[in-house]
TrEMBL record:
PANTHER family assigned: EXTRACELLULAR MATRIX ORGANIZING PROTEIN FRAS1, MATRIX PROTEIN, PUTATIVE-RELATED
GO biological process, any: anatomical structure morphogenesis
Organism: Mustela putorius furo (European domestic ferret)
InterPro entries according to UniProt: FRAS1_ECM (IPR051561)
Protein name according to UniProt: Fraser syndrome 1
Top-level taxon: Eukaryota
Transmembrane annotation, as ranges: none
Coiled coil residues, start to end: none
Length: 75
């Protein structure tokens, strides 16, 4: 099992999140909010990020057909 606080468990990670309002004068995306999240990686591992829920990571990481469902991700 994965236990918090152990070497292979979940730990609190630092991240930087910024919100920027793009007013009506913005050429490409007027009256929108730009969201930026920077998550550092450690030990050569990258965090998995997707706009859809991530289920069964074994299939997502081994079978490319499953990654096509996550076009807005870093898979």
């Amino acid at each position: 099992p994965v236990v918090a606080g152990t070497a292979r468990g979940f730990q609190a990670q630092s991240f930087i999140a910024t919100l920027k309002y793009l007013d009506v004068k913005h050429k490409e995306h007027p009256n929108r909010i730009h969201i930026s999240v920077q998550i550092p990686h450690q030990d050569g591992m990258l965090p998995l990020i997707s706009t859809m829920p991530l289920h069964n990571l074994h299939f997502l990481l081994s079978e490319s057909i499953y990654r096509h469902q996550h076009v807005c991700s870093n898979l």
